[in-house]
């Protein structure tokens, strides 16, 4: 365990996860990140307005 | 194993997110609304147009609820990212594995918030912006990349030199962080300004953003570390039990 390296972890993750599972996880994360940080559609943007300011996220 | 990390990260995100959601309900929302209102009056007195006319597409209640919910979701997103990164990067982090999550959380804060804020500081409602939103989002993404490089350089510098002396390690590790914190604000133009707000108020608003985002990362590291301790104790008891039943 003590001599484990980053590439060991990558190899282990490859064995543990199928490609669709990894893709699903990434897509889910990307969807949340896009909604919270990048979505500028006016209704969504205004509804999240206070959160973006309070969290210091770049806005309008 | 990656699934266990991810599960703990999401649970930590929910726990931290609920706390952060409460902060938004009781502090973030009222304060943002207040600043918004204050400048509406102010702006009209002086008759200059402000960038906030579009703040009425939805009701204040909707904004309050969605903003609090976004806060919860934000912590869950960071929790998932944090735990996945912890799984992959843990072998490269300094210290025992109880320290690792805190080091990575600090790196996460520097990457996602700290370095980008040196150029694009948290803006109070009514801030005037030098560039368009697309340009600023582009700058933000680039700064997140820079933040990751700076964090990696700091951790790498510490690891390479700490075996000789811990003090030397800390000094070498601090160099990239300090250099970025000093140089970046000097070379970057001031993109965000608050012409209609007193400086103290803006400083307080920004300090709250810094403290609460740092708090989220600390909460994630703390919860992930605790959950892992609990999981390990559980596996240990299961094993002992299984062992006893075999003997009996």
TrEMBL record, chain A:
InterPro entries assigned to the protein according to its UniProt record, in alphabetical order: CbtB_put
Keywords per UniProt: Membrane, Transmembrane, Transmembrane helix
Membrane-spanning intervals of the chain: 22-39
Domain of life according to the entry: Archaea
Name of the protein: Cobalt transporter subunit CbtB
Organism the protein comes from: Halobiforma nitratireducens JCM 10879
From TrEMBL, chain B:
Domain of life: Archaea
Leader peptide range in chain numbering: none
UniProt key word Chloroplast: no
InterPro entries, A to Z: CbtA_put
UniProt key word Nucleotidyltransferase: no
Alphabetized UniProt keyword annotations: Membrane, Transmembrane, Transmembrane helix
TM ranges: 9-26, 71-89, 101-119, 139-158, 170-192, 204-224
Record-given protein name: Cobalamin cluster protein
Lineage: Archaea, Methanobacteriati, Methanobacteriota, Stenosarchaea group, Halobacteria
